[in-house]
Every structure is written in structure tokens, then in C-alpha cells.
Amino acid sequence: MTNIKKIKDIPLSLNGVLLATLALSGIITYLLDKVDPNSEAIRWSIVGFLLVTLFLATFYVILISTKIIGFPNQTKKDFLNPKLSGLIGIFLIALNSFGNVVCNLINHLNLANQTALYLCILPVSISLLALILQIVYTLCFFIKIVTKHRLFKKETEAYGSFLIPFVGFGIGGCYCVNFHFLIPVLIYQIVWLFAIVSFFSFGIYSMFKIVIKGNQDKNLLTSQAIVASPTNVVGSAFLICFNPDNTKYLTNPLFFKIFSSILLTIGIITIIFYFVVWYRLSKNQVNKLTLASFGFPLAIFINHLLLFNFTFIYPEAKLFVLFIILLVLEIALTLFLIGIVIYLNYIHIRYINHLFKDNKDALENNYTINKYKVINN
Length: 377
Prior knowledge:
membrane, globular, transmembrane
């Protein structure tokens, strides 16, 4: 088998690793910027960290793009499988995030405003393309999966991957500030409104089914962690693109504060369930690669909590103690996330290495449990 054909067997879980890695870079950058935004040492540390992140992310993007484009029949097969269809959408979210990380790097190079603006055109174009593809993908998902799967029938299962197309396209609102507003905030606000309607129409119902009913297939246990993503995606995007400091459209300070609090409350409830899924893992055996489902949900919750903490708690002097408590919690969760992301990258790079070396014994012994194949096919 040629190396190109081996790319067909790259597991879809690599999408989750890519997205978690990019999300972690955003969290670390945000925290370091808050330490001292004028420190040259911190700025260059951020630049170095983002370069390493982008090097690894570019490698993943090339592999996944080749798999999706080079093997259309397999891509179609994965998309039409209700258990896997949402996982393809993770790549589009990651592609959107990729453009954001590139812009983040450019913004930390201290270039002239006009130069930075021109350099951001390409990554913003990548993110815009990803956003358009996300919308098309979501429409196809509704037509091919939701309508045929009969989601609202009592006996029909909902899968963690369902939650990705329902709100994934709303994540672009998190990045509009880094994009130098090359894409008007109003565009992201409109997209977010569609995302929140989709979330309340289908997302919450799917989350309820997953939490209450669970999945009959225990190999899908890890995908239940994705329940923590939707609310925190729309919550994070809302805190950016509806912030009165960033836009004059569709914003009201009181509503902004109240609705942000509601979304964070729901987000906290979902992250509790996320850790319940961790507990359930102690009683079940799962494929190691499927642990990729645990990266992004925690990352987007940390991002959501950070944004809320610095937007509403930090400015209030009387809430300083609460701010510190939340900040310590955020840092602790970030350290936990770093461990998860490092482990996920390690096992996936190791898997890819075994795959290209035709080391079938290593693949079978290290990644397959109870004779269940990797989540890819």
C-alpha cells in the first residue's frame, strides 16, 4: 500500500486533536497577554509557542485535507454514518480556528497596522471559506442525517457528533477581533443568531437524549463529552461579537450581561457532565484514539469562563476574591488540558507512525480494544 493510500486510514479522531491543540494555543496566549501585555519576553514566548502550534497544526491539516479530498467515497460514507457524520465538521471548525491562530501570530509580531492588516487577509480568507463550508455542511447534515435519522422519535439515539453541526458554525464570532474586523462583526452576529436558534431547536434536545439515554454502543461513550461544547461555543462567541466594546449593532449592555450569565450557567452544568463521562470511563474500556473527544469541550469551556471572568468579574472591585478564585480554577483546568492535549498528540502521532511503517501488530495491540476497529471506518 502506498503512503497516499495509507492516508485513507488516518482516524477521524485526528480532527479532534487538531482542534484541541489550536484551542489550547488560544487559551495560553490569552492568559499570557493578561500577565503583562507590554512584556517583550512574553510576546516572543507567545510567538514561539504559536509557531510550534502552527507547524504541528499544518501537518495535521495537510493529512486530513488529503484524506477528505483524496478519498471522496470514504468521506461520503463517513458523512452518511450518523455515528461519524459530525466528526467531519470538527475539521471545518479547526480550519476556522487555524486562521485565527495565524492572525494571532501576526498580531504578536508588532508590525505596522497596515502591514498586519494585509497579512491577515489570507488567514481571514481561510476562516471565511471554513465558515461557508460549515454552513453548507450543516444544511447537508440536516437534509441527509436529521430528517432521515428521525431524531425526535423516542427510540432514536442521538450521538455526540450531532452537536457539532448544530452550533459549530457559530464559533467564528470568537475570532472577529483578531481578524481586525476584516469581516464585519454584524456578519458574525447574524451567523451566531442562526447558531443559537439551531442550538435551542436541536442541540439541547440532542444533549438531553445523550445525557439521559446515553448510547447503547459503549464505544461511543467518549463522544458524550462533546455535550460540553455547544453551550460554551455559543457563549464564547456571544461574549466577543455582542460585546458593546466591539460592536454597535444588536447589543444591549443589560441583556448582554444577563444572557451571558445564562449561557455560562448552562455551560457549567454541561462541563459537570463532561467530568461524569470521565468517571464512566473508569468502568469501561474504549479505544485510546477516541479520547480526542475530551480535548475541545474542556478548552472551549475554559475559554468561555475566562472571557466571562475578565468581562464581568474583573472590572468589579468588590468581586476581586471571586475573580481570583475563578482565575485559579481556570489555570488549574488549563494545566489539566495541557496534559490531555500532549497525550492526544503523542498517541496520534505514534499511531500515524505505525500506520506508515505498516506496523500492524503495534496498531492492533496499542489502539484496538475488544476487537473494535479505530473510529475511522
